[in-house]
Amino acid sequence: MTSTMTPSALADDSCWTRADEMFAMLAEYRRKEPVVWVEGDFLPFWLVTRHADITAIESRPALFTNRPGPILEYAEPPAETAEGDLCPLPHRDGEDHRAHRAIAQGWFKYKNMRDLEPRAAELARQSVDELLAQGPECDFVDAVAARFPLRMILSILGLPDEDYPQMYRATQTMAWDKEPEEAWDNWQDCLALFGRVTADRRARPNGDMSSAIANGRVGGRLLEEPDLTTYYMLIADAGYETTAFAIATGMYELLRNPDQLELLRREPERIPNAVEEILRWSSPVRHFLRTAQEDTEVSGVRIRKGERVMLSYPSANRDEEVFADSERFDVTREDAGRHLSFGGHGPHHCIGAPLSRMEMRLFFTELLKRTEAIEAAGEPEFKGSAFLGGVKSLPVRVTAAAEPART
After folding, report:
1. Residues of 252-284 as b/e, b for ≥16 C-beta within 10 angstroms?
2. H helix or E strand, kind and range, residue 172
3. Closest alpha carbon to 30 in 3, 66, 60
4. Is 248 within 8 Å of 279 (Cβ atoms)?
5. Worst-scoring range by mean pLDDT, 107-116, 170-179, 242-251?
6. DSSP string for residues in 196-247
7. pLDDT, tens digit, for every residue of 42-69?
8. Among candidate residues 280, 245, 283, the one with its CA nearest the CA of residue 359
9. Cα 218 off chain centre by
């Protein structure tokens, strides 16, 4: 496929609704100009499209920093963060980043994931129950993909089920472009909830993620506002969206490749590898930016101090130098796990990656075990976003598997 897009389309949310054209454009630049200067009605940047270059940049965090901002900007951000400004974890660098990351990082260790797996499996079963109850036709995103990962987030935060409707309303605007007129009120309600949770966990810590955040210390001091707010928001929103879009887009690709869907149904032991291929293919996070702290080069192109580079994860995940036949979705791909969908390598690799992988593995295992057939029942819709997105609506027709005869 050829594309009429130019690299400036990367900053145009609407262009991401035509993802196949975007991927075709990125493939052209990987071949002919892998590091290219891009200008438009946004702050200019060097687009970096190859897997090796992105990995090299992420391996040098002191040279290529998050500050002054890791996401595409339309106005110059301040060089330094003033006291009281929001500064999420992905915006931090160096020791400041390590200290804040450590608050949650230990919680995602293997033991905690193992202990959490029974709850994750229970929520996967509940999600498939709800999908089948809505059938035979429904919107897969609304029924499952937008709900299951959020319930997992509530579980790790230690919030009760009755808080789910409030959190669901708040995240709908961010992830799926729904309920915009209520967005501000919904998030203010959530922030008030986080404030109450902080007070409770400081008085009665119980080992959940909320306890880790509420009692986390940097420089010997407890986190205070606005750092507390941004930490909860990072876990509650960003920690949920990547998995939700990966599940939705993965289901779409499996429907477009029914032979692979049936292969996973017959051989569920392939599902963990299929999860890696879904993550490679869906690439929910479209980019991060880094800023050069001194003059340097990337693939022979001179990058001056203060210039930004855009790390294109969808491009890296389709790099022909890494993935043979890279434009083919293949759940048996042996090297699928080399994708950069969790923010690549280095100190900024997503701390929630183990949780996301576990959720996807358990969900697709339960889904294929409990269904006889899943088919498309209409055309999908895609979220137009230069930063994070994927399939946002997916009509499906589901046939439940026959229950085993009782003896």
Report:
1. bbbbeeeebbebbbeebeebebbbbbbbbbbbb
2. helix 164-176
3. 3
4. no
5. 170-179
6. HHHHHHHHS--SSHHHHHHT-EETTEE--TTHHHHHHHIIIIIHHHHHHHHH
7. 999 999 999 999 999 999 999 999 998 8
8. 245
9. 26
Beta-bridge partner residues of 290: 309
Tell me the pTM. 0.93
Q: Residue 381: in which H helix or E strand, if any?
A: strand 381-382
Backbone φ, ψ for residue 392 (5° rounding):
-115, -10
Entry field: residues in the chain: 407
Instruction: Report how far apart, in Å, the C-alpha atoms of 209 and of each of 179, 308, 356 are.
Output: 28, 34, 15
Q: Which amino acid is at 261?
A: L
- Is the distance from CB of 371 to CB of 254 less than 8 angstroms? no
Query: How many CA atoms lie within 13 Å of 86's alpha carbon, on the beta-carbon side?
Result: 8
Beta-bridge partners for 161:
none
- Residue among 112, 76, 71 nearest 89 (CA): 71
- DSSP-assigned beta bridge partners for residue 53: none
Q: What is the DSSP letter of 43?
A: E
Coarse DSSP helix, strand, coil percentages of the chain, rounded to the nearest 5 percent: 55, 15, 35
Helix axes of 164-176 and 148-157: crossing angle, nearest 10 degrees: 130
Q: Which residues contact 182 (CB under 8 A, 6 or more apart)?
A: 169, 173
